[in-house]
Amino acid sequence: MFNLRASPSCTPKHYRTFSLSLLLSLTLLLPLTLSSTASLAAQAPEDVWVAVDTEQLSLVVMQGENPLQVFENIAIGSSGPTLAKRRDDGTTPLGEFTITEIRPSQRFELFLAINYPNLDHTERAFLDERIGVEEYRALRYELDRGQPPPQGTSLGGQLGIHGLGAGDIKVHETVNWTEGCIALTNEQLLELVKWVVVGTKVVVR
Question: Which residues contact 182 (CB under 8 A, 6 or more apart)?
Answer without folding.
Answer: 52, 59, 74, 75, 76, 92, 160, 161, 162, 204
